[in-house]
Amino acid sequence: MSMKACGTMNKMTYEGGREKLSLVQVLARFRTSSDFIQYEAETSQVKYWVSYLRTMVDMQTLQKSIMPFLKSGDWKTLDELQNGIPIENIIITIDTDVIKEKLLDGYILICLTEYGLPGLLIKATINKARDVSLPEVEFSVVGPKEAFVESIESNINLIRKRIPDEKLRIFELKVGKLSKTKVAILYIEGIANEENVNTVKQRIKNIKFDQISDSSFITQMISDNHNSPFPQLLDTERPDRVSSILAEGKVGVIVDGSPHVLIGPTTLVEFFSAFDDYFYNWLNASFFRLIRLFAVAFSILVTPIYVATLTYHYELIPGDLLNTLISSRRVVPLPPILEALFLELTIELLREAGARLPTKVGQTIGIVGGIVIGTASVEAGLTSNILLIIVALSALASFTTPIYAMGNTIRMLRFPFLLLAEWLGLLGLMLCFCFLMTHLLRLTSLGRPFLEPIYPPRTKDMKDALIRLPFSLLSKRPSQLRTNNPIRFPSKKAKMNKDIDE
To answer: Entry's InterPro entries (predicted)?
Structure first.
C-alpha cells in the first residue's frame, strides 16, 4: 500500500467481522478529552502532525530527546525519523487499533499528514510510582525489609534480583475491557507443573470484567470456590516470600497497580506460616508456628465454649470456678449469648473504625475505645469481667494470623460457632466443626487439595507444615505440586554438611 493510499484511509473498515475505526475517528474521540494535544509543525523540508495525551507523556523525554530532532529538519520520511531519534521503542504502523492502544499507553504519534497513515509511535511514557518501602502487613523484625509497590515493572525487578535465572518465565496479558490492566504470570520453567501454569493462564484469560483495580479482583475471579470464606490463593507483599515460593514450583500473579502478589496453588497451613519462620532456628520457628495454630483455635472456640457451658453444661464447670462465674454474672441481666454477641460486635466495630480512620486517630480509637467501653459495660452490668477477658484474649489471638485475608475469615467464623453453641450447646459446636471440616476437605486451590498435607496425608510434606524441620531435611519440593523437578538439593550432601540451625 502506497503512502498516498494510506493517507486516504478515512473511512471505517472491517476486520474479522469487527468494525475498525479510521484514524479520523480515533483522533476525534481523543479530542473530546482536555489532556489530548494535537498540533501541526513544519521544518524547512517537511510538514508533520504531533498527537499525544499530555497526562501520559513524560515531558522531559519529549523536550530533550524528541523535539530537538523533529525541529532540526534532518529528516524527510518516517524511516529517517525512526533512525534518528535516540529512543528504542519506536514503531511505524497503519493499524489504528495499535495507534489507539499506544496513545493510551503514553506514546507520541507523528504523521506526515493530519489523518494520513502510516504513523510513527514513540514511547515517552511517564512512570510515576512510589519507592520501595517497608512491608506494612507482613512486617518482620529480621530478614529483608522490601515490599512490593504498585508498579508491575518494579515488582518484577524485585523478584528477578532474587531469582537471576533464565528459566524464570514471565507471561504478560491485559485484563479488563476498560482498565486494560497488565497482569504478569510468573513461574520457573523446568520446576513448575505445566498444568498449574496453564490453569492460571486460562482462568485469567477467561475473565470478563470491565475494571480490574487490584489483585483481589483476580483472586475472587479465578478461585475454585467463589462462595468460600477461605482465601484460596496466597496474597503477599514480600518479594522474598514470592521468590522462595516460586522456587518450590508454584505460580505467581502480579497485577499492575497492586502492591500484593498472588501465589497458587496454596494450602491451609501456609496461611499460618510467617516467612520469619525461615529466619529463625528451626526449634524456635516450629514453636512460634504451633502457637499461631493454637491461637487460631482459641480465637474461634473459646467464646462459643463459654456460651455453651453456661447455657447447657454448667455441671462441667469446677466448683471454685463456678463461684467466680456466679459472682461475676450476678448483676448481668442478659443471657450468655447476648452478652457474648454484644462484646464480639463491639470488638468488630472498634476494628473497623480503627481501620477506616487515619493511622494515628485509628490507634487512639482502638486503645481508648476498648478501655472505655470495656470498663463502662462491666460497671453498667451489661457484661461480666470474665467474658470481657475471654473476648479480649480471643481478639488478641486472631491477630497472630500472618495473612490478613485469613485473619478476616477467622473473625467471621466465630459467629456461626456462637449461634450454634446457643442453639445446641457443645453438640452445636461439634456440628459446626463437622460442617467446617467438610467444607475444607472439599476445597481446592487451582485443583489441588486445600488441606494437604493433613488430608490427603503426606508425611513427607509434614516437614514444613505444622512445624518446620531443619533445612537439611527439606531436600524435596512439596509433592502436591507435582513439580517437574522435585529435588531441591541432594540429601546425601546435606547430611555431610550440617546446617547451622541443627
So the answer is: Spore_Ger, UPF0353/GerABKA_families
